[in-house]
Specification:
Largest interface: A-B, 60 and 56 residues
Strand content of chain A: 15-25%
Shape of chain B: globular
Distance between the termini of chain A: 61 Å
Radius of gyration of chain B: 22 Å
Number of helices of chain A: 11
Shape of chain A: globular
Order of helices and strands of chain A: HEHEHEHEEHEHEHEHEEHHEH
Strand order of the largest sheet of chain B: 1-2
Number of helices of chain B: 23
Number of strands of chain A: 11
Structural class of chain A: alpha/beta
CATH superfamily of the largest domain in chain A: Bordetella uptake gene, domain 1
Largest sheet of chain A: 6 strands, mixed
Oligomer: heterodimer
Number of domains of chain A: 2
Helix content of chain A: 40-55%
Order of helices and strands of chain B: HHHHHHHHEEHHHHHHHHHHHHHHH
CATH class of the largest domain in chain A: Alpha Beta
Strand order of the largest sheet of chain A: 2-1-3-10-4-11
Strand content of chain B: under 5%
Distance between the termini of chain B: 53 Å
Number of domains of chain B: 1
Structural class of chain B: mainly alpha
CATH architecture of the largest domain in chain A: 3-Layer(aba) Sandwich
Chain lengths: 328, 500
Amino acid sequence: MKKRTGARKSFILCVTLVCLLWVGSSQAQDYPKSPVQIVIPFGPGGLTDIFWRSTSEFIASNIKGTIVLVNKPGGGGVVGTSFAVNAKPDGYTLVSANSDPLTISPVFTPNVPYDPEKDVTYIAKLAAMAFGIAVLNDSPFKTLEELVAFAKANPKKLKSGVMGVGSTPHTILGVFNRDAKVDISYVPFDSGGETVTNLLGGHTDLAVVSMPSVKSQILSGKTRILAVCSPKRLPDFPEFPTMGEKGYQKSSIATGVGLAGPKGLPPAIVSKWEEAIETTLKDPKVIALIEKLGGVVVDFKSGEGYKKELMADLATFREVLPTLPGKK
Amino acid sequence: MEVFKDLLFGFSVVLQPMNLLYCFFGVLIGTLVGVLPGIGPAAALSLLLPVTFYVPPVSTIILLAGIMYGAMYGGSTTSILLNIPGEAASVVTCLDGYQMARKGRAGPALGISAFGSFIAGTITIFLLIFLAPPLANFALKFGPPEYFALMVLGLSIMVYLASGSIVNALIMVCFGLILGTIGLDQMTGVPRFIYKSTTLMDGIGLIQVVIGLFGVSEVLINVEKTFKQDIFETKVKGLLPNREDWRRSIGPIGRGSILGFFLGIIPGMSVVIPTFVSYVVEKKLSKYPEKFGTGMIEGVAGPEAANNAASTGTLVPTLSLGIPTGAATALLLGALMIHGLRPGPLLIQEAPDVFWGLVASLYVGNVMLLVLNLPLIGLWVKILKIPYHFLFSLILLLCIIGSYITNNNPYDVIIMVIFGLVGYLMKKFNYEAAPLVLALVLGPMMEKAFRRSLMLSDGGFAIFFTRPISASFLIMALLILLSPLFLKRTRLRENLRAGG
């Protein structure tokens, strides 16, 4: 019995020491003292995962520390995001701040356990990922106008594959349906890959997919993009018009990838990361690497700037999402 | 022939010392990933992705593909020795593999799964070379209605051939289907049975259920009867499969390879389903179906060949169309794209060294895996000689790590423990775990396929019968379910009715 008490005492001592270490290390001048965990709220193999694994090493060398990427998938990104924003604000647990769990889930999914405005410290925006409206190359629709004209004459006739419900592509289709006054039905799939597969098999008429997941099909001449949801034309596909050019500015929604932490993150740590990320994203090697993913564009914004952008999106979605089909 | 010249070129690529080294690392890491429950190949590929920026594209894909099929070799090890599936694809291997180990035949079980994987790997390479482009295009014909019909067929076969009572099997299938409905509904985002828990939003994890049902429940059952410790210590009869084992296994390996490859090609099928199909087929063809589940080597050989073949099959759509079939192949594609290559129909022309190098590396890697795994059998079998009180703690530890590590979520461990208790009760009352697991895998896929089909047809059920592939699957399922009414009392059916 005595032995056990001794063990317990030394355990408590250890825990105390570790905690002291932790407190000591959260001072900004010698931050980061130990590896920083960045939570990726999606599974391995997704675009966010590939993006972070491609760039984290460069960011780590600029912040002079070690980054450990941890996948915590689930609930469309809500599980991982909620884990990280509830962590201790010591700068050792950060999260990939994707727009889906921060702007769409809070509106679409009940019981999201955080408030994207109050519970999150935004550090920076790193990149934006564009989506596109894809059809098969032998599809009768050569332009977005032709698609709209057919959809107007034949409501509910066209089926569009989208990745997930309450996801960016689903929202894009919903806003597009509203603004173009058409009724294109949606069929939700689990991943960008599955959406593309079903488009290629001719099971759906069109698909709203992220550009990276459809890139190799465009290059091999199997699919065509009628419009991309991006503020400007994409550097690697300048031939595709943007939604904005076609007059559907509001459905031009791109997903942002950024970095965030729990609320109360010391400003010194935030600015340290901000600087490191800004330097990294100016490195031509990193830019080239990101552009090879196809459809991902470097889009640096400060934490404040990213927050403003996300909150504006959130306001739009609060107004639009409840009107989408599938969400009554 | 052109193909052989190309293949020879592929070998000249892979046999360069650097590439051989990458191939070796790939299969070694793959084996380790396979042995450790919870870490899947996708997680390992993801971890290694940054490393591949510094090596040429050929070496990258050789390394990453090595992990994928290496994991299929390793996954069977813990299934056979400890009744914990290293990967979801090795669940079926537990059924007979573990029983073989209990009878002192762990060596032959491990041996046949290594040889089976090797033979399957070899056969499928040739299928890959000759059939890849036409097959990939055929696989695209599988839309939601075809998936649904295929899964209905799968479940019908599973129930028909359950080894115990059919009623019990049906109950387990229903239980599995109900468990499969937990989580956020994929079609509308409506939460189902999640009670405000974020962990349950994505449903109950397959890995957690499987580890609990098989690993934990086995420990609980054995704790009850520790006095029987001598079982594992009975003389291990030979480390390699004997002539009789080979005679019985060669058919299952051949069939498992073909089945696994063709099912693996269909995007979204995963490598789990082919193993179940292979097991059921072997049981159906066997003269002693009632003995399945008691340590039949056919039940190890077939599924182990099938999962390896399926992992090669998943490469077909990935390489020839540029379509990922799962998380692991998505990472493979990502790596190729970062190197500036375009996976898809043009890959063979634009980067012949990558394509043929990869194909040749599949063969070289399989040889390496065989050489790597056979000597390990002696070592693995010794694990069984560890005294119970250590071994069981070790198994429980592995179960906890395995269930935590998949999502890094502590609540997953609780789910695993709950299913350990459920599995214990199921064993006590003679309910099989396999139909539950299959239903849990198929249920959500089936529901999604069904609802997607109806969305495509605007609610008309005719879509399942007007499409030829889906119609023929459904008719086959119907015939299987109705056959007991028409067939004479065959021995097989009597065995089924007699419950054993």
